[in-house]
Amino acid sequence: MLKVSRKAKIEKDFKLSRYASYRMTVVGSQAKRQVNILYGIGIFFLLFIFLPWTQNTRGRGRLIALEPEKRPQTIHSIIAGRIENWFVSEGDFVRKGDTILFLSEIVDQFMDPQLLDRTQKQIDAKGFSVTAYNQKIIALQRQIEALTIEQRYRLEQARNRVIQAELKVKSDSISFEAAKVNFEIAKKQLVRSESLVEDGLQSLTQLENRKNTFQREQVQIIAAENDLLSSVNGLLNAKIELNSVQVDFDNRLAKAESDLFTAKSSMFETEIDLTKLENQYSNFKVRAGNYYVVAPQDGYITQAIQVGIGETIERGAKIASILPSKYQLAAEIFIDPIDLPLIQIGNKVRFIFDGWPAIVFSGWPQVSNGTFGGKVHAVDNFTSPNNKYRVLVVPDPDEKPWPEPLRIGTGANGILLFNDVPIWYEIWRQLNGFPPDFYELDFGAIYKKK
Fold first, then answer.
1. Where would a tag sit more exposed on the chain, N or C end, judged by fewer CB atoms within 10 A?
2. pLDDT tens by residue, 3-20
3. Does 72-105+291-324 carry CATH code 2.170.130.10?
4. Nearest Cα to Cα of residue 400 among 363, 370, 362
């Protein structure tokens, strides 16, 4: 019999493992391990994508000084000149006011070694001229005052003469009228005497007496008229003299005032010349002081741009560069315009400095090593020539300080930190090209802490 009952097992009679097709359908221990590994990886990935991730954006830049006046600068020559002597070398420390080099003059206008002394003599001479004009003005003013007083008295005297002449005219006019009355009386008495003599009632002697009286009165009336005419003429002369005095003093005062104004004008012109000379003297003195090029502040001479002895330089030429000795470091980094709306004053930043090794997990700044903290200090309101926005970052006082050997110009790679999100969300955001999530700082707490 074939023994094909249900309970019978084929393995007892046949070894299936001898067949390759069978062996391919049987799950082995190695395959089970691979499946378990895949399950483990899947579970780990599922748990991993729910881990927190700090969103960030990167910006490349360099270290600078926070204060503009503390940044590296070049020293310029204020005047054109010839280099005569250097007093420093590259790398030397200088203090504010220390001499860096000495220049000699190359402009013909300023080559006179006694330029300042001769200019000072011109200033002194102009000053004496101003003083002389001032004294002349004072003398003319006194002359005008004296003429004014004399004019008042002379006019008063002339007016008094006019009044005296008017009174004399009145007096002579009265005398003339009295002489006319006496003449008429004498004339009538003579006529009556002649009638009486013809009638034989009066003697010839009395008639002759009347004739003498008539002739005397005739003389008196002529004399009185002559006196009256003389008085009228004297009145006219007095009035003419009054007018002459007025005109004479007016002319003398006008001339004195003209001389006064001329003296004032000359004094003002001299003062203008004096001011110009004083300005030139100050310019010459300042220029002489610029022969010595001095350090504008404490710092180190980093590079001599103009070299050699006897080399001529133009006005405004660069002579040397200086790095201030005391400054506060800050980092300027550049970010893309898409990230600008997310940047706020006080945002946290992690830095990787050139020359300082670091292990960086951008999404987990807590476990990164070799990075240094910073805070956003300022953000530009316009793009830089590279079409990116400049962000100024200062050291975070709550973090460990930046390395002491850092110098201005060191490269800095900044990581600006934003919101904490799951990893799956960050992957989805990156695939869709969305910007990081926006979050707001608690400025009240920040200022309170400050």
1. N
2. 555 544 555 555 666 666
3. no
4. 370
